[in-house]
Amino acid sequence: MNDYFKDNRISELRNEKKLSQRQLAAKIGTSQANLSRWEKGTILPSIAECWRLADFFDVTIDYLAGRSEY
Model confidence over 31-50: pLDDT tens digits? Predict the structure, then answer.
């Protein structure tokens, strides 16, 4: 598992919004398979994908990566 995104904040934020992986993937322009891999820590999202996630959830990329608490 990657050191970044280890806190699985993508999954937490997605669940808070009551979205399925498929729904979130469609909203940010990726595949459900990619989103699943990010949540498992198998692969990391690109910087562009991080920006889309951060914008969608209104959080910082550092928060997504577990480098900050807000």
Answer: 999 999 999 889 999 999 99
- What values do phi and psi take at 55, rounded to 5? -65, -45
Distance CA 4, CA 50 (A): 12
Domains, the chain, ordered by start:
9-64 (1.10.260.40)
What single DSSP character describes residue 44?
A: P
19 CB-contact burial (10 Å; exposed 0-12 / middle 13-18 / buried 19+): middle
pLDDT of residue 41: 86
